[in-house]
Amino acid sequence: MGCNSNPLLPKIGIVKDIRRETSDVKTFTVVTEDGSDFFDYEPGQCAMVSVFPVGEALFSITSSPTRKGFLEFSVKELGTVTKALHQIEPGTKIGIRGPYGKGFPRDFMKGKDILFIAGGIALAPLRSLINYCMDNRDDFGKIDIIYGSRSSDDLIQKVEIFENWPKVRDTDVHLTVDVASDDWDGNVGFVPAFLEELNPDPAGKVTVTCGPPIMIKFVLQSLEKMGYQPENIITTLEMKMKCGVGKCGRCNIGDKYVCKEGPVFSLEQLQQMPPEF
């Protein structure tokens, strides 16, 4: 359910904390004025964030619904609204409305091994589901997280990828960078090539991936080549969402509206759509 009877009316939130992830990415922790939850949501859903009086933009909710009392958004500075967000300080009031879209198919994933594949800022949409799985660890099999970025400086959520997640049982984090710095001792190479090098067995496994379009294109090709079935390959197209409520018509792929029927789709579903996704 949304936060108000009017789905277009934002609820006031207070920015409690701002964490710098990289030179151009910050994570914002937002709470309500009375300490209640903004709304119920699922991993993979999005919310509209308003910066007064600049404007609003849609972002994936990067916090997990298992962790109550706040929402988190990881935002890359790219345009007018994101630039305004990057300039605010803790204590600033912003607007939040949502949630929008459909979340990841958690029931379908239960009991299966999970392979997460992310590139750059696109770890943000998957982080909600990753932490949901960590907080419900008995519901899922082995978890592997493949995450890459341009450089080690561009990796986000460093505490989780280096410290928290690797400590969880039956969980492995595999990191790669396009270009190594002097202090980097991990893998160097693009995510699709790293995926094929690791060659995770598709048996009993669901994979969830998000990243730049060019990365997704080659990751999907690699997964199919490795034997993953289209129904077991899940991705999110939240970057195509605009208004979030199916009114502006800017997120349609053929007769499908990403904000209403997505943003989460299986490759099987995407293969039935026009190739413009």
Rg over alpha carbons: 18 Å
Topology-level CATH name of the largest domain: Rossmann fold
What is the class of the largest domain in the CATH system? Answer: Alpha Beta
CATH architecture annotation name of the largest domain: 3-Layer(aba) Sandwich
In short:
Residues 8-106 form the FAD-binding FR-type domain. Helix content is 22%, strand content 30%.
Structure notes:
Residues 8-106 form the FAD-binding FR-type domain. Keywords: 2Fe-2S, Iron, Iron-sulfur, Metal-binding. The chain has eight helices and 15 strands. It has 277 residues and is an alpha/beta fold. It has a seven-stranded mixed β-sheet with strand order 10-9-8-7-11-12-15, with helices on both faces. It has a six-stranded antiparallel β-sheet with strand order 4-3-6-1-2-5. It has a two-stranded antiparallel ribbon with strand order 13-14.
Provide tags for this entry:
277 residues; alpha/beta; Elongation Factor Tu (Ef-tu), domain 3; Rossmann fold; 2 domains; seven-stranded mixed sheet; 2Fe-2S; flavin adenine dinucleotide binding; Riboflavin_synthase-like_b-brl; FNR_nucleotide-bd
Topology readout:
Blueprint: E1 11-20, E2 25-32, E3 46-51, E4 55-60, E5 71-76, H1 80-87, E6 93-100, H2 106-109, E7 113-119, H3 123-135, E8 143-149, H4 158-164, E9 171-177, E10 187-188, H5 191-198, E11 205-210, H6 213-225, E12 233-236, E13 252-253, E14 256-257, H7 258-261, E15 264-266, H8 267-270
Parallel strand pairs: 7-8, 7-11, 8-9, 9-10, 11-12
Antiparallel strand pairs: 1-2, 1-6, 2-5, 3-4, 3-6, 12-15, 13-14
Helix pairs in contact: 5-6
